[in-house]
Design a protein that fits this description.
By secondary structure, this protein is mainly beta. It folds into 2 domains: 10-42 and 270-431, Cathepsin D, subunit A, domain 1, CATH 2.40.70.10; 46-238, Cathepsin D, subunit A, domain 1 (Beta Barrel), CATH 2.40.70. It has 4 helices and 33 strands. The protein has helices at residues 29-35, 234-237, 330-338, 409-412, and strands at 9-12, 44-46, 48-50, 60-61, 82-83, 90-97, 100-107, 114-123, 129-130, 149-158, 164-176, 179-193, 202-205, 214-216, 245-249, 258-261, 274-277, 281-283, 294-295, 299-303, 308-311, 317-319, 326-328, 345-348, 351-355, 362-367, 370-373, 380-388, 391-396, 398-400, 405-407, 415-420, 426-431. Strands 2-16-15-32-33-17 form a 6-stranded antiparallel beta sheet, with no helix packed on it. Bound molecules: 2-acetamido-2-deoxy-beta-D-glucopyranose (NAG) (5 copies). One 2-acetamido-2-deoxy-beta-D-glucopyranose is lined by residues 94, 96, 100-101.
Length: 438
């Protein structure tokens, strides 16, 4: 989930820093971690990957011109591309709050941690009240904050997909991967326009302080930037207990996805890391500030056996564990999708449909002087397969953005990614090598 702050995001720091690192051969993972001052930690936890259900895949035959101005390529006579709008594939983890464990989405694209309160109002998109069951959430939190409610303060958050929630603010001890973070500010949601997957109960916000969405007062209708009240999110509070960093190793394979706090998980081996600073941004014309995990790639490249293209200075990108696809500027997304063989075709709402058996191009993101390829298995999503008279179509891992460029799970899978929120404020990315080792 990317917390929605599009209109408010005024500038990226556009300075290019290109580091050139010498290539070293055959370093062991231990050498590599030592070189990066990364420690292997026991405080890691598995992530489970929940694909969308059939009903969530709102696919239909695509007809006519698209609404959003992207060029539509027909693949040949008689072909009818799919209109392909995926619901998110969610990575979930277990989090201890209030004496029990909850299934939650670890989300680097937002900073607020919340659980549905048992008394929450489920709203439709027009904010009409519906039965709670319509929101399709996992178990909800009964009772009140054990660490006390914060008077005269509330959460009011909107996510990029159009979901919005309001909730009370208070304190709870939160246990992640065996570490208990005492007195963490979080929200119990009182009203929500959002659809769950029947499993998760809330979100574990892993973003930084600038992305929190608390407001003073009790009436959300009065919320404005002037009444916003930032607070210390989990990644800040956890520095009382452990090193202020977390890392994720996601995979489309069962049982190869992990999140760890304070270090990197033990059962993952990698090649060398690319390191890049987290970029500050400004909202509402205010001073630059750490908001999203925003990075500035050196370049982007796409190639297949016939053609290639390079973007020397692409836009800034957000690293978001809670978003399924990668979202790039429309021209970049189109060029990449054109290089599948056969080419992917535009399906509306930013997404592209591609033959499930197509050959994906090689896509590389240049980060910190190194080229990080997107794993080919991330570029065609088999769990989105729809059969048509023209063959089986899947959703492409590269979509066109609606303003912000996002490196989602379809980039993060098969990488070990470190979010270092210490004073260094940097991100590290390395390709995993443990696939065959297990
Ligand atoms: C929560 O999960 C942890 C780790 O799996 C386990 O040790 C603990 O007993 C669980 N707590 C409850 C209340 O089920
Ligand atoms: C929690 O307590 C506050 C007062 O401290 C109250 O206003 C609120 O309704 C309570 N919430 C629930 C779910 O009981
Ligand atoms: C706060 O929530 C209300 C009601 O859900 C909504 O109408 C309003 O736009 C929100 N304001 C902000 C700043 O998010
Ligand atoms: C993966 O984990 C599940 C339970 O979480 C277990 O049932 C399954 O056997 C595991 N698969 C492998 C390949 O280890
Ligand atoms: C990239 O494409 C150009 C023509 O567009 C060609 O001259 C060049 O050799 C290609 N480079 C690679 C590495 O394929």
């Amino acid at each position: 989930m990317t917390r929605y702050a599009l209109q408010r995001l005024l500038s990226w720091l556009m300075i290019q820093v290109v580091l050139t690192a010498p290539l070293k051969d055959s370093l062991t993972t231990r050498d590599i971690l030592a070189e990066e001052s990364l420690v292997v930690t026991d405080t890691y936890f598995p992530l489970s990957r929940i694909p969308p259900t059939r009903d969530d895949l709102q696919t239909s035959r695509f007809q006519g011109q698209t609404e959003d101005g992207l060029q539509v390529r027909q693949t040949g006579p008689g072909t009818a591309p799919l209109r392909a709008i995926p619901k998110q594939t969610q990575y979930l983890m277990s989090v201890g709050i209030g004496g029990r464990n909850w299934s939650m989405i670890p989300d680097s694209g937002s900073a607020d941690t919340w659980l549905m309160s048992s008394t929450f109002q489920c709203l439709d998109r027009s904010h009409n009240q519906q039965d709670q069951i319509a929101c399709n959430f996992g178990p909800s939190f009964t009772g009140n904050f054990s660490g006390g409610r914060i008077a005269d303060e509330h959460m009011n958050i909107s996510y990029g997909g159009g979901d919005s929630l309001n909730g009370d603010m208070g304190y709870e001890d939160i246990t992640v991967a065996g570490i208990t973070i005492p007195k963490q500010q979080m929200s119990l949601v009182t009203s929500a326009s959002i659809r769950g997957n029947g499993i998760f109960s809330g979100i574990l916000g892993l973003g930084m302080r600038g992305l929190t969405t608390s407001y003073t007062g009790s009436n959300p209708a009065n919320d404005s930037p002037a009444t916003a009240k930032e607070y210390a999110p989990l990644v800040e509070t956890m520095s009382k207990k452990i090193a202020p960093l977390f890392s994720v190793a996601m995979s489309r394979d069962d049982n190869r996805s992990f999140i760890s706090f304070g270090g990197v998980p033990p059962n993952v081996t990698t090649g060398e890391f690319a390191t890049t600073p987290i970029r500050q941004m400004s909202m509402n014309g205010g001073p630059k500030h750490y908001i999203y995990y925003g990075i500035m790639p050196d370049n982007m490249k796409v190639s297949n056996t016939e053609a290639n293209q390079t973007w020397p200075r692409p836009v800034g990108m957000l690293v978001d564990t809670g978003t399924t696809l990668n979202y790039f500027p429309a021209d970049v997304a189109q060029a990449i999708n054109d290089l599948f063989v056969p080419p992917a075709v535009y399906g509306g709402e930013g997404t592209f449909a591609v033959r499930c058996d197509a050959v994906p191009p090689r896509v590389e993101i240049g980060i910190g002087g190194k080229a990080i390829p997107i794993n080919p298995s991330n570029l065609i999503l088999p769990e989105t397969k729809q059969s048509t008279p023209d063959g089986d179509y899947c959703i492409s891992g590269v979509a066109a953005n609606a303003g912000l460029s996002i490196l989602g799970d379809a980039f993060l899978e098969e990488l070990l990614v470190v979010f270092d929120v210490s004073d260094k404020k940097q991100m590290k990315f390395a390709q995993r090598t443990d696939k065959t080792a297990q």
